[in-house]
Specification:
CATH architecture: Sandwich
Structural class: mainly beta
CATH class: Mainly Beta
Helix content: 10-25%
Distance between the termini: 48 Å
Strand order of the largest sheet: 6-5-4-8-9
CATH topology: Immunoglobulin-like
Largest sheet: 5 strands, antiparallel
Number of helices: 1
Radius of gyration: 22 Å
Shape: globular
Number of strands: 9
Order of helices and strands: HEEEEEEEEE
Strand content: over 45%
């Protein structure tokens, strides 16, 4: 075997074990399907959610963050049904974490139709951010911020 072929075979042999190692994948956008919720004894319905990387104003600077939104449909649109979901986030690269409540009201607007939407932005810093919601136990969204 020529020295060049020997070196090439050596590089392939060293790199082969890493080809099968799968890293957790994160995107700039994540989504959770609608799940049933009970907001109160008279208000149920479904809630879905999404999260996306977004720039965040921090004082005079712009930093990395994640915007989380929920869509709540109670099947009742008179404004009497509201849902509060707790969003928790953790930056896997820096160890930073936080949480906040997002509240949506299931209502109808004459111009836009059904509105049961609310969102909140979190200053997460750059890196891979895992977002979980109290409405979706066991589910998570991985976002690259």
């Amino acid at each position: 075997m020529t020295p060049l072929r020997t070196a090439g075979a050596f590089v392939i042999a060293l790199g082969a074990p890493w080809l099968s190692a799968a890293a957790a994948h994160a995107d700039a956008f994540g989504q959770l399907d609608a799940v049933p919720v009970i907001a109160s004894p008279t208000c149920g319905g479904t809630v879905s959610a999404d999260a996306q990387a977004t720039p965040i104003q921090i004082g005079a600077d712009v930093g990395h963050g994640v915007g989380v939104s929920i869509r709540y449909d109670a099947g009742i649109y008179d404004g009497s049904c509201a849902l509060t979901v707790t969003a928790a986030w953790r930056n896997l690269d820096t160890g930073a974490s936080g949480r906040g409540d997002i509240s949506a009201v299931s209502t109808i607007d004459g111009h836009y139709g059904f509105i049961g939407y609310a969102n909140k932005n979190f200053a997460t810093g750059s890196g891979t951010v895992v977002v979980t919601l109290s409405s979706h136990p066991g589910a998570e969204m991985r976002i690259t911020a």
